[in-house]
Amino acid sequence: MAKEKKTFDLKEYPFPTEEIPRLNIDNPETEKRIAAGLPVVITDSGLVRSALHWDLDYLQGNIGDGKFTVYKSKNKKFQYFDDKKVDTFKDFEKPMEHLDLTFPEFVKKLKTAKPGKDKVYLQQALNEGVGKRIVADFLGFNWSWVTEQQKKNKFGALTSNLLLIGMEGNVTPAHYDEQENFFAQIRGYKRFILFHPDQFKCMYPYPTYHPCDRQSQVDFDNPDYKRFPKFKDVKGYETVVGPGDVLFLPMYWWHQVESLPDHGHTISVTFWYKAGPIGNVVYPLSPQQKVSMMRNLEKMIHQALNNTDEIPEFMQNMVLGRYT
Ligand SMILES: CCC[C@@H](CC(=O)O)C(=O)C(=O)O
Ligand SMILES: [Zn+2]
Q: What distance in Å separates the CA atoms of residue 220 and residue 225, rounded to the nearest whole number?
């Protein structure tokens, strides 16, 4: 008997979205969508079956006494920034604070956080430092399936399995990644809002040399349509993933991710894969290839000018009145 469809009270955004298909791992459509670079929620994969019992107590008892990367945010947003680029932007204000905490210190902060006060988000790559029961759980992941997907789709190497433990209401604002991602949900519910790479023109990412490279400048809660007029034309896809669900999140697809309010803290694990080898170029170029080209051109101009202050005028001189 099919599981009754869970319904959620979701915040309305000012753009239309379509539902991302939820397909069983054995449905032939599932692998077709992965091969086509289309998002799909894969049910009954068992990818993280050996971790579905993970909760804060179990993890605290078994994950080890090392330090974990935890971000703290004054609001609900956890916008990634590249520390290595911070000093190229003197007046850059870090959107969140990086703490290194033991697991018990993290759990205490998570449990004592006051509504509307600081929120915390643990984001730590699973590595050999974890306790042996966690290692056993990790080895129990459905590696044969995900490795088969990696090979079939000619993905590059597995780069990391990031453990994510977020408070309800936490938001990772819209951005894209340059890796393929099988996102496994273990506990709680996360809303994913995705946009096709061809929506780049509506998403206005920061410049590549900015600490928030790959992140959209648009504040979804208060869009500035003067600065970002095309955002009003954006069209998205969305889904809510729950325990056992795996979302295939293709490289360069934009996504905003929210730990649903009123559903408790969330636990997730990512399976990030490098891009595969570039085959022969086929025209017309894909939106993903055009994003990659824009990135390379921006980086080249930044390097050649060797002065970030000169870049805006250089870019405008090249385009305004000539290609506009
Ligand atoms: C640091 C990674 C955060 C994650 C989104 C989320 O679960 O909050 C994401 O963006 C991804 O898996 O690509
Ligand atoms: Zn991401």
A: 11
